Amino acid sequence: MTEDAKHPGDVGAGRQGRADKPSVERRLVVEYGTELDGVWLPLAMLRRLGEHGRWNVPFTEATTDQARVLVAHGLAEPHNNGLCRGNGLRNFVDAFPFEPTLPFATVSSARRDAGPADDPLPGEPRT
Would you say residue 93 lies in a domain? Predict the structure, then answer.
């Protein structure tokens, strides 16, 4: 094993070989939805289900538990090997108090370094 290669898969790879490898990142993902009968129903999935009528391709994204809950509450109906939207789906999804997430504005560091201001940033006390 070379000095640059610390792992068995890196044998024969110099520093340039390792720079091309992807890195693993950890990110926080926010998923909007609701829990119904102990089963998580993502809002995005419910909206995609709303696009599947009786004559469309069946909706097959739901897990077995999700499909069971959706059918039991009239949010979906069995359709071939999947589901199609049920009569109660539109009112159910429209009842969510949901606004799309807007991107946050970038806070410049120049404003923080400028000293006390008449209008502090949100959440900061007035000086």
Answer: yes
Question: Model confidence over 43-72: pLDDT tens digits?
Answer: 889 989 988 888 888 889 999 999 999 999
**pLDDT tens digits, one per residue of 97-117:** 766 666 667 766 655 555 555
Q: pTM of the full predicted structure? A: 0.56
Task: Let me know if residue 87 belongs to a domain.
Answer: yes
- Residue pair 59/82 in contact by the 8 Å Cβ criterion: yes
Is residue 49 within 8 Å of 70, Cβ to Cβ?
A: yes
Q: Which CA distances in Å does 127 have to 50, 84, 105, 116, 121?
A: 51, 58, 23, 6, 11
Residue 80 domain boundaries: 59-99
Number of domains in the chain: 1
82: enclosing H helix or E strand: strand 82-85
